[in-house]
Amino acid sequence: MTALLRTEAVSKAFGGVHALADCTVEVDAGSIAGLIGPNGSGKTTLFNVISGYERVDGGRVYLRDADITNAPPDRVFRSGIGRTFQLTRVFPRLTVMENMIVAAGHHDRLPNGSGRGLSGLRSRLARAGGPATRRRAIELLEFTGIARHADVPAGTLSYGQRKLLELSYVLIASPAIVLLDEPAGGVNPTLIGVIADRIRDLNQEGTTFLIVEHNMEFVMGLCDRVTVIDNGTPVVTGPPEVIRTDHRVLDAYLGTDDGDSDLPA
Amino acid sequence: MRTLARYWRAPALAALLVVAVVFPLVDTSAVDTTFAINTLIYVAAVTGWSMFSGNTGYVSLGHAVFFGTGAYAVGLLAWHQHLAGDVIFATLPLGGLAAAAVAVPFGLVALRVRRHTFVVVTIAIFFIFQLLAFNLAFTQGNQGVSAPFLQWNPATYNNPFYYAGLIIAVLTIAWSWQIRRSKFGLQLRAIRDDEDRARGLGVRAMRSKLAAFVISAFVTGVVGGLWFYFIGQALPETVFDPTFDLTVALMAFLGGFGTLAGPVLGALILEPLQQQLTLQFTNGYLSQILLGALFLLVILFLPRGLVPSAEEWLTAGRAWLDRRRPPRGPVPAEAAAPETALAARKAGE
Amino acid sequence: MGRQLYEAIVSGILGGGVYALMAVGLTLIFGVLDIINIAQGIMVVLGAYLSYVLSVHLHIDLFVGLLVTVPAMFVLGVVIQLAFMRPLRGSERTSMSLLASYAVAIIIEGVLYSVFGASDVQLRAWYVTSSVKIFGFYLADIYLLGFGLAVLLVAAIYFILYRTTFGRSVRATMQDRTAARLVGIDVNRVAALTFGIGVAVTAVGGMVYGTVNAFNPNSGYDLISRLLAIIILGGLGSIAGALAASVFMITLESVVDVVWSPSWAIVVFYGALVLVLSVRPAGIFGKKEARAQ
């Protein structure tokens, strides 16, 4: 199967701390991939590197066959990678609908729409959010269940609602792959179930996911394939049932780090 | 009440416009029209400033650079070409273009840094320009540039300036309104809320910021040109005036930083006030002290400015009124909506 | 020319030392409070005027007078922070603090104009005009004394920062305000006191500045623009950066003044800033750009 997203021997250090070392990860098109590991193992750094928020010290990042290493965040997004943040980041003073429109800004026409030159200029000067964009935005907001809040400032949403908003606006650009950073973190169990359902629905329509999570039930129940990362390097990768019992995973969690007790017995 | 607002807003604006147009024909006092012209100049200047700073959240304290560049560009052109008469107003867009041209390198340097540094960089670049104006030969150094002698009827001398100012102010406000409604404006406000997040959603931050900066510079340059003709002279210390930006910022913050009506309101309140104070107190320093004190008061007690605070009071008042009214009937069952939408999707597969 | 060049370099270094003191105060304020104190320039002028009053009207020696002006400026700084900066809330806090300090600056300028008028004054003392011969050059005593005092005070600041509990609190607050609160540091107190220190050093800077330059209330603009350029070049919040940048910039200006012309020297000063920022937006010693927020 073709790898949609691939990192090759990526390394990244902050001062003396090696956040990522020889990190090679592959995500197949159409799959839901999980990325787990103890705190500080480099998961968020990997996301930052892929999405352009950090530069690599070494190694490369590929989306299909295109080399997107060190591409700036806006270019990464436009090439089809969406990403959510651990601590939700929405635009608090803009309404929920406006949040959606900002993300939609570049895909008003075709998924690979140029938005450049004069046509881009016209679309930029046009009223924010043409009817097509708004329809799609409402569709997504209904899908995640927050459509009735469309006209309130995003800053007034609850934490869980913000998570859903982030998911929504990342999707409006129809990305090929979505990187989810702890989608179930700090969210009540019912909502976690809703989020898992939505991810499955979207995946059935063709969106690939790479999910970082600490919630083992969530990951094991949802992902086709799980990669365990420790000290910035992938340790083992495989289907959930295999990972669950691999001793290297236990070592990674319970070894030299403070034991994470969320690994199921 | 919201629907009511929709009905009276347009007529109210139209009435205001009519009053503004008729004003100098009714009130012919030169003092009053001078007040009005200066006020219009500041309305345009602060709206122009706000097109950039209000939308992106990057506070610029260097817009005097554009004001001065516009003034000098227009002044030097008029002087070299020996212009006089009504044609002078045609040169104003050129002042704007000169300022816009300056804004490009200025912005490319200044917009790469974070917000605090940005403010300071704008101040530094402002001082560079002031120094250049003093030192470069073609700007005539200390002497500055004088405006051409305009042989207009002294009784209505101010009127062309008034109408030019009115047109510029109205066009600027309209442009600012259009930007706010557009995708471009939304991107700017997203940048203001969380620039990194905006970039992660495909917004080309640098390009957007620079575009807003250049547009804002153009407007400020045009205004600077008008001011030059009106005052009759461009001197380094008057057109590159350190208190210009502070005054403009104060007007924006007083009225409501980041809103459309706020800066306009701020200018309409402060500029006449400032002019009045300058007339009353010949000691110019006192008005400076008062300006600073007023600023502090605004920052401390009305941090969000008049327009947002007024909106807040209105909303609170309306909510209070609503609570005192009897309830209106059964609440529609809207909770079913998301579920049905999802069910529809699933059924459709 | 060679001799003039050496003199320019030496006086640049000495002058830079004095600017360093004021710049360190400014960058310290930024590091702890996240505010750029635009009023720093006019504070220097205020310090100069205070020294002037003590010297001319009370016949107190300039250096002795510092025993009065430094604590006075310290108190002023603390009061300003408590009254106008601490109460600020909301997402635009840092911009508003900056504007508040700008407002304070123009108020002080207005007051100085009203009290002292617009004409130039200069501080006088025997050591201002006398000089000492070192290595064949005449160096004005005041430069040496001022430099010496500046070095002493910067050393004192380093000592406080790195050897006292208070200093540790300051450094902790500079690094992470929330974490500092969590370990029990009274961040508000640290902020107020740091602002006070940052302003207090301007008393010394003002005294030296006032002896070497004729000044009036308008001099504040020139001062603050230089100080801002210096701390940005050195990296906001970096004390070592403020030191290095001060000496570098003032020496550069001094050299250009001699080699080229005085009016261009100042343009080169700012040009250097713009140049450095184009290459390194965070300044020489600045921390990597935490994304524009």
Q: How is this structure best described in words?
A:
The complex is a heterotrimer of chains A (265), B (349) and C (293). Chain A is α/β, with parallel strands linked by helices. Chain A has ten helices and ten strands. Chain A has helices at 43-51, 73-78, 96-104, 117-125, 131-144, 159-171, 189-204, 216-222, 240-245, 247-254, and strands at residues 3-14, 17-28, 32-36, 58-63, 66-67, 81-83, 177-181, 208-212, 225-230, 233-238. In chain A, α3 packs across α5 (131-144), α3 (96-104) runs parallel beside α6 (159-171) and α5 crosses α6 (159-171). The longest helix of chain A has 16 residues, at 189-204. The two termini of chain A are 32 Å apart. With 349 residues, chain B is mostly helical. Chain B has helices at residues 2-26, 30-56, 64-81, 92-110, 115-135, 158-181, 183-200, 205-231, 236-239, 242-255, 261-280, 284-301, 306-324, 336-348, and strands spanning 145-146, 233-234. Chain B is globular and about 70 Å long. Chain B starts with a helix and ends with a helix. In chain C, 76% of the residues lie in helices and 3% in strands. Chain C contains twelve helices and two strands. Chain C has helices spanning 2-33, 40-58, 62-85, 93-116, 126-129, 141-163, 165-175, 177-182, 187-212, 219-234, 239-259, 262-279; strands spanning 131-134, 137-140. In chain C, a hairpin with a 2-residue loop joins β1 and β2. Chains B and C meet through α5, α7, α10 and α12 of B and α4, α10 and α12 of C.
Question: Quick summary of this structure?
Answer:
The complex is a heterotrimer of chains A (265), B (349) and C (293). Helices cover 37% and strands 23% of the residues of chain A. Chain A is α/β, with parallel strands linked by helices and 265 residues long.
